[in-house]
Each structure stands twice: as structure tokens, then as C-alpha cells.
TrEMBL record:
<dbReference type="InterPro" id="IPR004104">
    <property type="entry name" value="Gfo/Idh/MocA-like_OxRdtase_C"/>
</dbReference>
<dbReference type="Pfam" id="PF02894">
    <property type="entry name" value="GFO_IDH_MocA_C"/>
</dbReference>
<dbReference type="GO" id="GO:0000166">
    <property type="term" value="F:nucleotide binding"/>
</dbReference>
<dbReference type="InterPro" id="IPR036291">
    <property type="entry name" value="NAD(P)-bd_dom_sf"/>
</dbReference>
<dbReference type="InterPro" id="IPR006311">
    <property type="entry name" value="TAT_signal"/>
</dbReference>
<feature type="domain" description="Gfo/Idh/MocA-like oxidoreductase C-terminal">
    <location>
        <begin position="172"/>
        <end position="454"/>
    </location>
</feature>
<dbReference type="Pfam" id="PF01408">
    <property type="entry name" value="GFO_IDH_MocA"/>
</dbReference>
<dbReference type="InterPro" id="IPR000683">
    <property type="entry name" value="Gfo/Idh/MocA-like_OxRdtase_N"/>
</dbReference>
<feature type="domain" description="Gfo/Idh/MocA-like oxidoreductase N-terminal">
    <location>
        <begin position="36"/>
        <end position="160"/>
    </location>
</feature>
<dbReference type="InterPro" id="IPR051450">
    <property type="entry name" value="Gfo/Idh/MocA_Oxidoreductases"/>
</dbReference>
<protein>
    <submittedName>
        <fullName>4,5-dihydroxyphthalate dehydrogenase</fullName>
    </submittedName>
</protein>
Length: 468
């Protein structure tokens, strides 16, 4: 049998970030041999989506050989939760793991600001990487990843799951087919509610040193969708952002929910002891790292924005207006595309436009559900040609697993890596970087009050047509 590591090396010689290829495409496995995976970061996303779901759905073709997390309690808990085989080892140090193991792929699901460390160490050790979004949290780390990918001739996949949902894919198809002529401008608003939106401020995400702010952590999903839909690179960014609602409010005591003396009066009180999953995953292992999962939303350490507005001029002269709100009464999103021959409008979960009403909590729970048991519903996209009638295009959609995107991303990477990628769903470091760079440019713009050129941030230069 051809040596798998050397075999993969032959497809890893592509210029850094330039071409997206699935590193597992050509993996040659002998009869009964499984793809060897390592998971770094055994929190909620790693354990559920990249851990348990992979073992449950693809256990016939892959296996975890190691789990790594700095929290010794959580990594042991993860082994049991994921249901790894008896030979899978747990580590608290990546370096110890890589001394002993020879994985085919390392999956990185640690907090955002630490992704680059593990991406680069994996590449240095000759292993391909799959990283959760955002690829990283600033322009310097972006550059380090791009350089490492080029130097070590290995590939990185960025897990942009939102691209894979049928609804978002339909928008891509309409734009790819020039259904509204030449695209000229885009208006995109994302509303987070006081449940899911607030949860970012409870967690490590509330500190920019971990998340890079929601302009990176959350908006990376949206900027990636926009870059992919618009099919061009961002050229210039101007932004505003502020922290007004959450954060250091003097009238709050600033302790975590469990120990707070305002439990009865605070609308945001959240009892973590009532959630078995969160209790087992976080509270039981607090003593090892001091990470408090039910932190106060009004603690002084919060230093991210809770309202953000970003204007982007793309290299193909498309203008984007983007708004992210974090304490809306309902959660959902709206996008409108203006073209020389018409307009497309798309929206999800806008309550006054929905046939079926669902509570905000139930909606988020359904979205995170990986079981695949959710009902298919039709969601409309409105296509209105100049001087024509409006047309309603219904797209079959399931709420679970990020609109059905999660499952399709997994299938393409692991089950059918050779399948044609007609809509350019798979993302590599160039796409990972372009999305992060809008966020970092926006942050820089908020601080300086000036527009920021994306081409000034790294060696990547914006192109009128996105490079795939
Ligand atoms: N694509 C999506 O829809 C989606 C959804 C949720 C989370 N995510 C991403 O997944 C990643 C993990 O998020 P989460 O919600 O699971 O967070 P989490 O806090 O539940 O888990 C993070 C884990 O990383 C560990 N960790 C912290 N610092 C570390 C370090 N330096 N080295 C190794 N391990 C470290 C923690 O102990 C914890 O177990 C983030 O990058 C997040 O953006 C993506």
C-alpha cells in the first residue's frame, strides 16, 4: 500500500491558501484500516459535533487515536462522552501527543485565539488540519498560518458549516447563475436574541483576547457566507461598534449566576445546575482551570462590542452593509442582494414572516440538534426581476445542525471526499483568512475611526474574483 502520509504530501504542494482541496480526497486506506483522527479541544463543539457525531456516523471509516485538552478532567470526560475506542489516549499537552501518535488529521476545536498554535504545530509535524471557525483572531496569526501551510506543504480545511445548508446554497446558485444580473450591493442583518446572544457574554467569547470580539467569533460565519455569495474578496472596511447593554454595569454585582444574590430579579439569571450537559462538561471540571461557564453578563472583564455595523467595499465594487445585534427580542437574519436586473431577498426565523411560531429557546435547541430527526420545512427566497413579477422559490430546510449544513459538511469531508464540489462549499486558509480579515479590519477601523484596506493586513491581496 502506498504510504498515506507521503501520498497526502503529493497533494499538499499547492500554494498556501490558493486552492481549496480536501486533504482526505486521496487518502488510500487498506481493507479495514481507518482514518486516524486527533481532537484538540474537548468542549461542547469538539465533543458533540466533531467527536460523538463522527464516531456515531462514520465509525466504520475513522477512529480517534487521541484527545487533547488542557483540562485533565474534561478530556477524560470527553473520552467517555464521545465513545472513543479503548486504544484512544488522552493528553493535556499537544507535544506529548504528537511524540506518540501519527494521525492523518488533527481537528482543532479550542477557543478561537488558540487555534493558530495547534494548526501550526500540526502542519509542522506533517499532519493536515481541520479547524473550527474562525480560523484565527487577528492578522498576524493569519499570516503565521498562511506561511506555515506554504512551508510545510500540508492543507487546512476551515469548517464553515453555514455554507452547506441547502438554503444558503440556493442563494449561491442564484447568484452564480447571474439571476439578478451583475451584483451591485448587499444588505445583511443578523439578530441574536437575549438567550443565545447573551450566552456569548457569559463565556470566554466575552473577552476579545479569546474570541477576537464577535466581529471575529460570530461574524466570521456571516463574512464567509458573504465572501462566498459575492464571489469576490473584501477590499476596504469601515466599521462602528460599541458595548452598551452587557458588560461592566455598576448596578450589577458581577459574580457568576450560581453565587449571585440577584437571582430572583435578574432577567438573565441562568441556572447551570439544571442543565446536565453543561454541569457535567464545565462545572465538574472548574477546579482544574477556573473557567466559569455561567459568568455574569455584566462583569467588568467583558471587552467586546455588543452592537456592530460594518461597511465593506469588495474588490468587484459590490458594497456591503452589515449589522450584528446581540440583544434582540427574536433571533434570525435577513439579506437582500441588489443586481442590475433585479433583487433577491432571503430571511430565516423572522417571527412575523413565519407560519409556525417557535419559542426562542426551542429554536436554538433545534439548531444545535445533531440527531437528524427534525422535520423538513420550506423556506422562501424572493426573486424579483426588474419590471417582472416577484417569484417565491421554496427551499427544503431543516432547522437542526445549522440548517442541515453540519451533516453535509461531514459527509463531504469524510464519506464522499471525491464528490464534485459544484458550489465551492469547501473552505481553505484563503477563505478562512478573508473572513477573519474583515473582522480585524473592522476592529482596527472602530479603533482608528478610519477605513482599513484589507490588503494592508497580510500578504493576501484582494481579487475581484475570489480564488478557488
Ligand atoms: N461552526 C459552528 O457552528 C461552531 C459552533 C460552536 C463552536 N464553534 C467553535 O468551536 C470552538 C470551540 O468552542 P466551544 O463552544 O466548544 O468552546 P468550549 O469552551 O466548550 O470548549 C473549548 C475547550 O478547549 C479547551 N481549551 C482551552 N484552552 C485550550 C488550550 N490552550 N489548549 C487546548 N485546549 C484548550 C477547554 O478546556 C475546553 O474544553 C471555537 O473555536 C468556536 O468558535 C463553532
Amino acid at each position: 500500500m502506498q504510504n498515506r502520509r507521503n501520498f497526502l504530501a503529493t497533494i499538499g504542494t499547492i500554494a498556501a491558501g490558493a486552492v481549496v482541496s480536501n486533504p482526505l480526497k486521496a487518502a488510500v486506506l487498506s481493507e479495514g484500516e481507518k482514518l486516524k483522527l486527533v481532537l484538540v479541544g474537548t468542549g461542547i463543539r469538539g465533543n458533540s459535533f466533531w467527536g460523538k457525531r463522527l464516531v456515531d456516523e462514520y465509525g466504520d471509516i475513522l477512529e480517534f487515536v487521541a484527545l487533547v485538552d488542557i483540562n485533565p478532567g474534561r478530556v477524560k470526560y470527553a473520552a467517555d462522552y464521545i465513545g472513543v475506542g479503548k486504544d484512544c489516549k488522552t493528553y493535556t499537552e499537544f507535544d506529548d501527543m504528537i511524540e506518540e501518535q501519527s494521525p492523518d488529521l488533527i481537528i482543532v476545536t479550542t477557543p478561537d485565539a488558540t487555534h493558530h498554535q495547534y494548526i501550526i504545530k500540526a502542519l509542522e509535524n506533517g499532519v493536515d488540519v481541520l479547524t473550527e471557525k474562525p480560523m484565527t483572531t487577528d492578522e498576524d496569526k493569519c499570516q503565521e498560518i498562511l506561511d506555515a501551510e506554504r512551508r510545510y506543504k500540508r492543507k487546512v480545511i476551515v469548517g464553515f458549516n453555514y455554507r452547506w445548508s441547502p438554503y444558503n446554497t440556493k442563494i449561491k446558485e442564484l447568484l452564480m447563475n447571474n439571476t439578478i444580473g451583475k451584483l451591485v450591493s448587499v444588505d445583511f442583518s443578523w439578530m441574536l436574541n437575549t438567550s443565545h446572544g447573551a450566552s456569548y457574554f457569559r463565556r470566554w467569547h466575552g473577552q476579545r483576547e479569546w474570541s477576537g470580539t464577535l466581529l471575529i467569533h460570530k461574524a466570521t460565519h456571516h463574512f464567509d457566507l458573504l465572501n462566498w455569495w459575492i464571489d469576490s474578496d473584501p477590499d476596504e472596511v469601515y466599521a462602528n461598534g460599541d458595548l452598551e447593554f452587557y458588560g461592566n454595569r455598576r448596578d450589577k454585582s458581577g459574580v457568576n449566576c450560581r453565587s449571585c444574590n440577584e437571582k430572583d430579579s435578574c432577567a438573565f439569571f441562568w441556572d447551570i445546575t439544571k442543565s446536565q450537559t453543561d454541569y457535567n462538561l464545565y462545572v465538574k471540571h472548574e477546579q482544574h482551570d477556573g473557567y466559569i461557564r455561567d459568568n455574569c453578563l455584566f462583569r467588568p472583564e467583558i471587552n467586546i462590542y455588543d452592537k456592530m455595523n460594518v461597511n465593506v467595499k469588495y474588490a468587484n465594487n459590490v458594497y456591503l452593509n452589515y449589522m450584528l445585534t446581540t440583544y434582540s427580542p427574536w433571533e434570525g437574519w435577513r439579506v437582500a442582494f441588489n443586481g442590475t436586473e433585479g433583487r433577491i431577498e432571503a430571511f430565516l426565523d423572522v417571527p412575523y414572516l413565519e407560519d409556525v411560531q417557535i419559542s426562542q429557546e426551542d429554536m436554538h435547541r433545534a439548531e444545535m440538534d445533531q440527531s437528524g430527526d427534525q422535520d423538513q420545512i420550506n423556506k422562501p427566497i424572493i426573486l424579483h426581476k426588474l419590471w417582472g413579477e416577484q417569484e417565491i422559490i421554496n427551499v427544503g430546510y431543516s432547522r437542526g445542525g445549522h440548517g442541515g449544513g453540519d451533516e453535509r459538511l461531514h459527509d463531504h469531508i469524510f464519506r464522499t471526499p471525491d464528490a464534485e464540489d459544484e458550489y465551492q462549499h469547501l473552505a481553505g486558509t484563503r477563505d478562512g483568512a478573508m473572513s477573519v480579515l474583515i473582522g480585524t479590519a473592522a476592529r482596527n477601523s472602530i479603533e482608528s475611526g478610519m477605513p482599513v484596506k484589507v490588503g494592508s493586513l497580510t500578504t493576501l491581496q484582494p481579487r475581484a474574483k475570489r480564488l478557488v
